Amino acid sequence: MDVKQYKYTFTVFTPTYNRAYIINRVFDSLMKQTFKDFEWLIVDDGSSDNTQEVIEEFKKTAWFPIRYIYKENGGKHTAYNRGIKEANGELFLVFDSDDSCIGNALERFYFHWNNIPSDKKDKFFAMGALCQDQNGKIIGDKFPEDVFDSDTIESTFKYNIQGEKWGFLTTDIAKQYPFKVFENERFVTESSVWFEISKKYKARYINEALRIYEINDDSLSFDAVKIRRTSPKGTTYSYLQQLTLNIPFVYKVKAMINCFRFSFYNKHCFFECIKKVNKFMLLPSLFLAFIMYLKDKK
Predict the structure, then answer these.
(1) Based on the domain organization, do 54 and 28 belong to the same domain?
(2) Domain total for the chain?
(3) Contact 142, 208 (CB under 8 A)
(4) CA atoms within 13 A on the CB side of 4
(5) Which letter does DSSP use for residue 121 in this model?
(6) Do 216 and 263 belong to one domain?
(7) Is 293 a domain residue?
(8) 258, 264, 276 from 294: Cα distances, Å
(9) Is residue 204 classed as helix, strand or coil in its secondary structure?
(10) Per-residue b or e along 255-274, where b marks 16 or more CB atoms closer than 10 Å to that residue's CB
């Protein structure tokens, strides 16, 4: 594989949709960064507010390059696919439009990335760190070790590490694993990409809280069940993918149940699940999924 020569160490990528009123959190954080070799790439997923005008104002005072791209609304995963194509940084850091980070976040990421031995670095695709809330409290589980080499499959299903995390991918590898896009749907789980990459590559995780994940902001709440119900093809694809992974059977059972749970919203998805789930678990999975489906509809 030919490795592209990149202009920057980091592309800090922000997908956004109608966040003109709050995207200054990202801008303010980037203005404070001690590490200077990065660009800020914003992909606007069809906003109807004044996001573009806000970004133009940022450009007047920013000491780093800012690029703004507008596209028709298609969901965060389609904005990600566009962003990774446009990236001019060797490392691709997704920075959501409603979050902030500590002033030396990029510096700490780069420090730990460079601590991976050069003869092993081509086996790594990503780095992950902890998140804290605006009061400094750690959100989610810590990693088993302060510097922990693993992958998304192992950390999820073997170590059961849960909660918000933050990190970057190498742009070269990320370009090879875009999100699948399903017509008329606006959601695919992020794990569907991370699991696929983790079949071949590892990640380095660190017990440092670099991202500030704002909580107690009801206006930015995310209804995970609702978005999955309205994107059944992308959702069932993600759960069917888990059935192909080398993971404990109990997790495969959960994936079967959730696959059927959301397949009830699309006939094609339902028959795909019928074909691919474990035949011994077919009836129990269907029964439990239907109970959850009825509960969701309420």
Answers:
(1) yes
(2) 2
(3) no
(4) 17
(5) G
(6) no
(7) yes
(8) 13, 10, 23
(9) strand
(10) bbbbbbbbbbbbeebbebbe
Helix (H) or strand (E) holding 21: none
Please name the residues in contact with 276: beta carbons below 8 A apart, sequence gap of 6 or more. 240, 243
In single-letter form, the type of residue at position 197 comes to: I
Amino acid at 180: K
104-156 confidence digits (pLDDT tens): 999 999 999 999 999 999 999 999 999 999 999 999 999 999 999 999 999 99
For the chain, helix (H) and strand (E) counts, in that order, are 12, 10
Q: Are strands 202-212 and 100-101 parallel, antiparallel or unpaired?
A: antiparallel
In a domain, 247, yes or no: yes
Give the C-alpha separation, 211 to 201, whole Å.
24
User: Token pair 């993971």 is at which residue?
Assistant: 247
Return the DSSP state at 22: T
Looking at the structure, tell me whether residues 149 and 274 fall in a common domain: no
Locate 260 and state its tokens: 């059927």
Tell me the one-letter amino acid at 296.
Answer: D
- pTM beyond 0.85: the answer is yes
| CB atoms near residue 133 (< 10 Å) | 15
Task: Give the DSSP letter string of 153-190.
Answer: HHHHHTS---S-EEEEEEHHHHHTSPPP--TT-----T
Total Cβ atoms within 10 A of residue 118: 7
Beta bridge partners, 122, equal none
Q: Which residues are paired to 166 by β-bridges?
A: 129
Per-residue pLDDT at 220? 45
- Domain of 85 in residue numbering reads as 8-220
Q: Residues 234, 213: one domain?
A: no
Q: Does residue 193 contact residue 167 with C-beta atoms inside 8 Å?
A: no
Kindly state whether residues 122 and 258 are assigned to the same domain. Answer: no
Q: What is the pLDDT of residue 216?
A: 59
pLDDT, tens digit, 9 for 90 and up, residues 227-259: 999 999 999 999 999 999 999 999 999 999 999
